[in-house]
């Protein structure tokens, strides 16, 4: 737990820091003295840039922000936990999952650098309905509820920028291939590979892309609303056609343009059909 020294701050600042500390219980969250309001980093940066914060509120944001490193497999928050604040992924990859009606765990989406999580429950004033688990080593920022509520209540520009970011992030996940769940699993899987390649891939010789998938095949199937055997068939087809090579979680895409052209052509056809 972060230990606070009352003599080094005003009573008001101390209360903000104490609220952040209490929200995180005994977890090893810590203050990052290098954080400044103008370049707070991660997903909140675009929401604070240009906002005319009063000096006291800028200091509150800096001094109440906590950071923590998570190892792979650690829970960032769990279903049923109180929504104590807003989480920003500064580094690494995490998985959001939920329990279905049969209490089986279902993968919902992956989040990475720049993503904000925990906001739905925070603004709904409800406990978390999902669990966030680190798939890789993760570096996380935490903004306490008291801080976010004060800033959204006080600064309309901050509220507009924050909710615009959240809406755009949500919209990017609800694109053509998310809406069209009737599309063959092969196309949904290729779209998944493209997303992973763009976010986490390494470009090699000749333009090939190599990426290590952070989740297992059964979790990929859950993300794509498919059966694991359907994902296995899609993998076999892509390997047979020379479009991708799979070695465990390591994937090599020899010619990304050839692979991605498959879904680009379908997406273009879908857009044309919408206009008729």
Please give a structural write-up.
By secondary structure, the chain is of the alpha+beta class. It has 2 domains: 6-174, Jelly Rolls, CATH 2.60.120.10; 177-274, Winged helix-like DNA-binding domain superfamily/Winged helix DNA-binding domain (Arc Repressor Mutant, subunit A, Orthogonal Bundle). The chain has 11 helices and 13 strands. The chain has helices spanning 11-23, 45-48, 55-64, 119-124, 145-154, 156-173, 176-179, 185-200, 217-223, 228-240, 256-274, and strands at 30-31, 66-70, 75-77, 85-91, 94-99, 105-111, 116-117, 131-134, 138-144, 202-203, 209-212, 245-247, 250-253. It has a 5-stranded antiparallel sheet. Helix 1 packs parallel to helix 3 (55-64) and helix 8 (185-200) packs across helix 11. The model is unreliable at 1-9 and 20-26 (pLDDT under 50).
Low-pLDDT residue spans: 1-9, 20-26
**Order of helical and strand elements:** HEHHEEEEEEHEEHHHHEEHHEEH
* Strand residues, percent: 15-25%
Structural class: alpha+beta
* Total count of domains: 2
Radius of gyration: 21 Å
Distance between the termini: 60 Å
The CATH architecture of the largest domain can be given as Sandwich
Our count of helices gives 11
Query: Would you identify the CATH H-level superfamily of the largest domain?
Result: Jelly Rolls
The portion of residues assigned to helices is 40-55%
- CATH topology of the largest domain, what is it called? Jelly Rolls
Just give the CATH class of the largest domain.
Mainly Beta
Question: What's the β-strand tally?
Answer: 13
Name the overall outline: elongated
